[in-house]
Structures are given as structure tokens and as C-alpha cells.
Amino acid sequence: MIASDEIDRSWWKEAVVYQIYPRSFNDSDGDGVGDIPGIVEKVDYLDELGIDVVWLCPVYDSPNADNGYDIREYRSIMDEMGTMDDWERLRDALHERDIKLVMDMVLNHTSDEHEWFQRSRREEGGYEDYYHWVEGEPDDPPNNWGSFFGGSAWSYDEVREAWYLHLFDEKQPDLNWRNPEVRESLYETVNWWLDRGIDGFRLDVINLPSKPEGYPDGEVDTYPTGGEHFVNGPRIHEYLRELYEETFANYDVMTVAEMVDLDVEEANAYLGADGDGLNMAFHFDHMFLDFGPEGRWDIGEWSVSEFKEIFGEWQTGLDETSWDGLYWENHDQPRVVSRFGDDETYRYESATMLGTLLFTLKGTPYVYQGQEIGMTNADFASLSEVRDVDTRQPVELLLENGEIDSYEEIREAVNYRSRDHARTPMQWSDEENAGFTDGEPWIKVNARYPEINVAAARSAESSVWHYYRELIELRSSSDVLVYGEYDLLETPDPLYVFTRTLGEERVLVVLNWSDEDESFAPSASLSTDDATLLLSNYDDASGFGEATLRPYEARVYGL
């Protein structure tokens, strides 16, 4: 058991991170697209919420094939987002309030409009092998690898008369990390930003850069096809350790790695001093629980026990030098209250219960914009309302291949799963367009904004927003909730009960993950006259002891 005087403290372990998707956060100039000056306008809001770190999704120069994750120039700001002066104002405004700034960095691929790719397709000296090129006939791709966005991972380039690899959109060619000049160029880019005073990076799909020579065919029953060759590829640890030593090791910064198909054992190889030096990782295990037998566009059943098993594996399986990144939502995931809660009758209760679980597990919690007010999924009535390439492309392929006859056949799945649910504009008020813009928003506004918005949440006596402030304050003042050991208590579904222990300090978390009353009787080992109710999402929650937990009730006790 860890004693309080044996804590290996780090600022990023104790932080609460708030993710901003700039296009959808706040529009300052009325063009319908959120921008950096719009974020500056809301810095006091972030400060009042109590968060410690802002994770800023890409604002680099980009043609926006994948909303900024296709970078055309790493050291320039996208015109729609503002200028480098605007970015510096944001950095300074955050730092003045003791809020750190973490940038999103994409190192696996660039835009096909990047200067490197343009030179590479022309086979200019020194750039020939910056990307993965394979010569061949225009109708015969090099292998059967598939894209994460659907279709082949290869596109034929008429200029070079060769195939190039793109694990995502065809406008996102993969960089060839086997070329040391590519790696050096990327390290220089990372250091360029670190020298400008940022506090770290979220690293996009960072376990994909290593591809095997020869590009062997993949197993056809994997997703995407070929993933066994390029997910956690043959030289990935060599590459990431080198990245760490050439960049992050020289700064006091935070790194969080988004990693595809990651398990606990692999995470320990990537994280901490005993791994590749990265601080923490995002895995997807809990994000796959509601996938049906047919995959992503099939809605499946899930159980509380499955969440207990997955969270327990990550809570207890990481090495002493590894750390977990905790999240429910981000720019790639739908709204959690619509997904694993009840976004109608028990929206407040389920949103706050899910928030309680997030903040009382061991790891660094991430809050996605709008999560703190309980934003819900939207309704995309037609494919023309969908903006996300990762939704449009697979649906268009299903239509093209005759697997569905109309959008209506898949509308329910899109309205459950699409990434666009996280990208509808931030709901600031009940004014037109939710107070996000004076212009025409780039993506539809969720129709529930008159009811669910920041202004209403802040003015209400009780709201998801107020509860998130309490969660943030509780975690920020409690070492046991940051560093304490996790122990699951045996309870039947839908109860989820666990303790966190640090030295003599102990916290009990009791959750009812259902829309019905449930009885809870603590074991004799937990009964104590000194138990204190630290937080609950019901104002009249009873003291410690046998109780009836109401729908989606959450209680946190100090023992």
C-alpha cells in the first residue's frame, strides 16, 4: 500500500484537463466557425470551472479534409482560426490564470497539400522517401490494407505514377518513419512548439507510425485489414523512445498518447521511465462495449459488469511508472449521457453519476467541451447534415455497395455513434445558434440548446455544471483520489462500488448505474461512525449505512 509520504508527484497527474474543439467552441467573427479569439473570450469561463489544463485540438494550417488533423503546415495557424498573435494571446491568457496549454500533434501523417508531400510526389531530391510509395499499375494496389475511414488504405497518384499509403483519408498520406530525415523533421517541429512555451502534447494515433518493409497482406477479418502489421508496428518502441529523448525529455511537459488497439501490457511498454517515456495513454476498451456483432455501425448491448472489468484491469494493471488517461468524451466520441446514461428523464442524474465515476478513478480526468453541462447527441435527419468524413465515407460506401438502400436504414446508428455529436456547437445560451455564432454555423446546432446551455446551467441552483465544479474541487483537494489504490467491492449490477486508499486515508464510491431504485448495504468492514458524505448528486442523500439508491445516484464517502 502506498503511504502518503511515498507519492511520486507530478503536476499532470493532479491536473484536470479540458478539451477544446476550436471549430465548435466559440466564434468571434461571425463566419460560423469557432476560432482562437473566441477561446480567448471564454478563458475566464474555464478558470471559473476550475480546470488546470486546456487540450487544444489542431489549429495548424490545414485544408480541413479531417477538420485539422490533416496538417498542411505545422508552424502556421489556419486562417479560419486566427493568427499566431492570437495563439500567443491565448497561451498567455491561460498561463496568467495558471492554466497550462497542451497542443494536439499529428505525427503519423500530413495533408497531401503539405510541402513535403508535394515535393515527394515530384521525387525532388531528399523527399523521395518521405512517404510510403509503391510502384504498380493504377488498378492494382500494393496490398489489401484498409483505411480506418473505410475503403483501401492506398491511393494512386497520377503525378508520381505510384501508390501512396494513407491509413485515414486519401488526403492524409502517412509519413515514412523509416526515413531518419522524416523523424528529424518531426522532432524539430515538436521542439519548435515546446520552445514557444506550451506545456505538452496530445499525440494523435501515435502507435501507428511503424510499418513493416514489404507491406505484407493483412488478415481479412481484422479492422482495418492489415492492422496487425501497422498497429504497434515492428520499430514503434525504437521510434517513440527516440522521439522522447530528442524532445520531451528536455522539458517539464505532459504527454498523452492516443493509441489504437492498446492493452494494458502494451501500455506499460510505452509509458513511464520503464517504457518509452510517454506520460499516459488513451485506450478504447470501454468505447467498444456498445459495438454490436457487425461492428461500429451496429448498436450492441453492454453491462455495468463489463465496465467494472475493463476499468479494473486498467486501474490495477498499470506499472508504478505508468498512468491512465480517463475520458468519456472527446472529438471522436458521441455524448456520454446519450450513450451510457439517460439523456431524457435522468439527464442530470446520469450525467453527474458518470462524471463521478470519471473523477474518482485513478488517472488524469479529461472533460470535453459541453460535457460539463450534460450536452446530448443531436439528430442528423439526412446525410447532408453530417460533416464528419469518418461518418460520411463509410455510409456512402454502404450505399454504393448496395448494403443499405437509404440513409434511413442507418440513421439510428449515425445518431448514436457519429463523431459529429461531439462537434455540434458549444451551447452557451438560449440565443440563436446557442450563442456560438452570429453567422451560419458550419455544422448544425443541437436542437436542445434552449434547454441545455451554459447560461441556464450556471444560473440554476443545481445543474451538471455546478456538480462538475464540485467534482473538480474535490479531486483537486484530495491526494487519495489522485494517488490512492483502487479496490472493487463485490456488488451486483447495476451497482458499481469501489474504494480508493492512500495510507490511512480511504474513500468509498457508491454508484447506481440504472434508472431504478437499488438497495445498498455496506459490508461490515466498511461500517464506521466516522464516515463522511463528501459528495452526492442528490441533495438529500442519507448518511453512511444501508440505503436505497435512487436512479443514477452517486455518493462519495470519506472513511
TrEMBL record:
GO terms for molecular function: alpha-amylase activity. InterPro entries: GH, GH13_cat_dom, Glyco_hydro_b, O16G_dom_2. The keyword Repeat does not apply. It comes from the Archaea. Keywords: Glycoprotein, Glycosidase, Hydrolase. Transmembrane segments: none annotated. GO terms for biological process: oligosaccharide catabolic process. Residues 19-423 form the Glycosyl hydrolase family 13 catalytic domain. It holds the Pfam family Alpha-amylase. NCBIfam families: PRK10933.1 (NF008183). Belongs to the glycosyl hydrolase 13 family. PANTHER family: ALPHA-AMYLASE FAMILY MEMBER, OLIGO-1,6-GLUCOSIDASE 1. This is Glycosidase. It comes from Halapricum desulfuricans.
